[in-house]
Amino acid sequence: MSKAPWTDIISDFVDHTARGASPDIFRLWAAISLVGGALERRVWIRSPYGYTFPNLYVMLVAPPGVGKLVIDQVQDLWQDTLKKDIPVPAFKVAPSSVSKASLMDRLSKAGQSMPLDCPTQMTYHSLLVAAEEMGVLMPGYDMEFIGVLNKIFNNGRVYDEERRTSSVKSLKIDHPQLNLLLGAQPGWLGQIFPEEAWTSGLTSRMILVYASEGIRRSYLGKITSLETERKHLLGQLSHVSGIWGEVDFEEGVFERFDDWQMGMRSPLPSHSKLAHYCTRRPLHLLKLCIISAVSRTGKKSISAYDLDRAFNWLFSTEKLMPDIFRAMVGRSDNQVIEELHFFLTATWNKGGRQPVPFMALRNFLRERVPSDKIEKILDAALSSGVVAIDGDSQAAIPRPKHEHGME
Description:
Layout: H1 9-16, H2 24-39, E1 43-47, E2 50-52, E3 57-61, H3 70-80, H4 100-108, E4 111-113, E5 123-131, H5 134-137, H6 143-153, E6 158-162, E7 170-174, E8 176-184, H7 186-192, H8 201-205, E9 206-210, H9 227-240, E10 245-246, E11 248-249, H10 253-262, H11 275-279, H12 281-297, E12 301-302, H13 304-318, H14 321-329, H15 333-350, H16 358-366, H17 374-383, E13 387-389, E14 396-398
Parallel strand pairs: 1-10, 3-8, 3-9, 5-8, 11-12
Antiparallel strand pairs: 1-2, 4-5, 6-7, 13-14
C-alpha cells in the first residue's frame, strides 16, 4: 500500500472545519496552534538570543456564540494522535477546566522523551491546553498565575515553586512548555483585565485573534462523513510527533527576516495597548515560520514562502486587534449613536453649520467600535433620522433630538 502524499496540515484543517460555524480567521489560528502544539520542544531555531521553540499562546476573542467550538476540534485531534510507529498517545493534553495548581500538576506529569534517534535523550514537559473559555482557566485576574504563564512561555530549563497549602510542598519541572489555545469574550476581558494588564508580560506573549460574527450554517443541511479527512490529519500529526532538531533557513530567507526585524518592522500596530506586544513580534514571526514549514512539507527547512505566509498571518490578524479593545468597552449601539450625534452637532456648529464629511464620522466611530460595525452604526443613524444627508454636498448634518427616534 503506497504512502499518502504529504499535504499542508493547516490548509487541511481549515478545509476540514469549513462546514462548522467558526469564522475563517479562527479556523486558521486553530490550525496554526494545532501544528505548533504538536511540535512541542522537539524543534527549534538557535540564535544569539537562545532557542526559539514554536509554542504559542493564542486567544480567540469574540462575542458569545461566535464559533469558538473549533478549539474543541483541536483538542480532540491532539488527544487522538498516536506517536509515530508506536501505538500510544503522542501528546499530553490538559482537560478543558483546570486551575493554576492543577495545571502545574498536569504539566509536572507531562514528561516526554526525545525520539529514539535523537542523540540527546532529553526529558521535557510539554502540555497542550485548549479551553473554549479562558474564564474557566483564570476566573479572575491572578497575578501569580500570570507570572507562571509568563515564565513558562520562555521555555526555560526548569520551573520550580514552593507551596503552602498543597500536599505537594514543592514542584520542580525540567524543560517545561505550555501551548495555549484559549477563547474569550470581549466583555470578559474588559471586566477581568485591568488597564495595567496590557503592560504586563502575558498580553505581550498572547496573539489576540478577533472576530465579531460567526458563519451561519443550515441546521438541516446534508451530513457528510469527514472520517477520511480526519484520519489523514491524524496520520500527518503522528509524523510530526517524530520530528526533532534544529530548523534551517533556505538561502536569503533569514536575511529578509533580519532586515525586517532590524528595520521599522512595518506595518507596526499603533494602539497603545499593543505597545508591549510589539516588542515580541519578531519572536512570534519566527515561531510561525517553523510552524508553516513543518505544516507544509513535514520537514524543518524554512523557505521564502513560509516567511511570506507568516508575515501574512501575523499582519492580517494584527489589523483586527484594536477592534478587541473597542468591543471591550461594551457600549450599546444606541449609546454610540448618541455619542455620534453629539460629535456631529458640535462639529457642525463649530464649522459654521456646514455639512460634515462622512469620513469625519467614520474616523470618530473608528475609535469607539470594531471596524466591521462602523457602516452598520452609520446606517442605523441615517435610518433613525439622527443623521441626515445634505442634498448638495452629500455630507452629514445633524437633526435636532426632538425630530428623530433616538431620544
